[in-house]
Amino acid sequence: MTQYLDFEKPLAEIEGKAEELRALARKNSEMDVADEAKALDAKAAKMLQDLYKDLTPWRKCQVARHPDRPHCIDYIKDLFTEFTPLAGDRNFADDHAVMGGLARFNDRPVMVIGHEKGHDTKSRIERNFGMARPEGYRKAVRLMEMAGRFGLPVVTLVDTPGAYPGKGAEERGQSEAIARSTEMCLKIGVPLVSVIIGEGGSGGAVAFATANRVAMLEHSVYSVISPEGCASILWKDAEKMREAAEALRLTAQDLRKLGVIDRIIDEPLGGAHRDRRKTIAAVGRAIEAMLAELKDLKPKALIADRRQKYLDMGQRGLAA
């Protein structure tokens, strides 16, 4: 069953009426509602196109958070083979908000790491809604270090509202763990590519996305803070999130212009959740293309490329 966002309510009514007609026809074979249902389908298709033609930043945030959007685990299942999960930070615990391990991508050995939000109430609680604790980032550091040792490309899939801000996480060194993960991204001598598949929130996202190449799905978002958090700080009112979303320039389109990301991956009309298989295939093609761009670079060149990318970023932003 499709879950509709607030701004999609008119669309929900039309698609609901079309489904009601078909349900009546299934119960009563003498009813002929094909033409009426077809007309409603055409009206719904036109409305969907109009709704998604020019989404505001806040609406993009809503789409990026859609519960039916493909998550890290879905991409790993469909794009990678022989996935062998690796658990724990060898220090405190295993963080289920971060999943990672050895795998093959197009028959090439890689290390894949990503945030996992969960798909139902039980798994969302287990995964802490994709908000990693320090042990999650330390696990990522361990896996990236292993990838560097064995010369394996690293693929990261980012989907987090931000690092977990709880008391225990702070006591165990949350900021230090994020910094170490970001540092490891910068210094490993293997190709590192990242895809923002949903939300890219704050340092919790940067700790995985300080990569040679960064791609974003068309309706994903990537920002230093959530619009609600920004509104609470600047206006002391979380309801100002629409204005904050505009000011943050968090859309893939804005970030491509600023040079923060390198490519935008098109989504199906209506968002990634409306055609999960097509979305996952598009992300696979983007990962393949980004790895191909880096395949001939030596370790020192990869490190220099990554470092220069981030040194240049502020200059590109000023120029924009």
Task: Describe the protein's architecture and organization.
The chain is of the alpha/beta class. It has two domains: 49 residues; 258 residues, 2-enoyl-CoA Hydratase, Chain A, domain 1 (Alpha-Beta Complex). 52% of the residues lie in helices and 16% in strands. Strands 1, 2, 3, 4, 5, 6, 7 and 8 form an eight-stranded mixed sheet that branches. A hairpin with a 2-residue loop joins strand 2 and strand 3. Helix 10 crosses helix 11. The longest helix has 21 residues. The radius of gyration is 21 Å and the shape is globular. The model has no long low-confidence stretch (mean pLDDT 92).
**What fold name stands as the CATH topology of the largest domain?**
2-enoyl-CoA Hydratase, Chain A, domain 1
Largest sheet: 8 strands, mixed
Low-confidence stretches: none
Specify the overall morphology.
globular
Level-1 CATH class name of the largest domain: Alpha Beta
Give the tally of structural domains: 2
Write down the secondary-structure element order: HHHHEEEHHEHHEHEEHHHEHH
According to DSSP, the number of beta strands is: 8
As a percent range, the share of strand residues is 15-25%
The residue-averaged pLDDT reads 92
In helices, the fraction of residues equals: 40-55%
- Number of contiguous helices: 14
The assigned CATH architecture of the largest domain is: Alpha-Beta Complex
Distance between the termini: 42 Å
Radius of gyration: 21 Å
The name of the CATH superfamily of the largest domain reads 2-enoyl-CoA Hydratase, Chain A, domain 1
Helix-strand category: alpha/beta
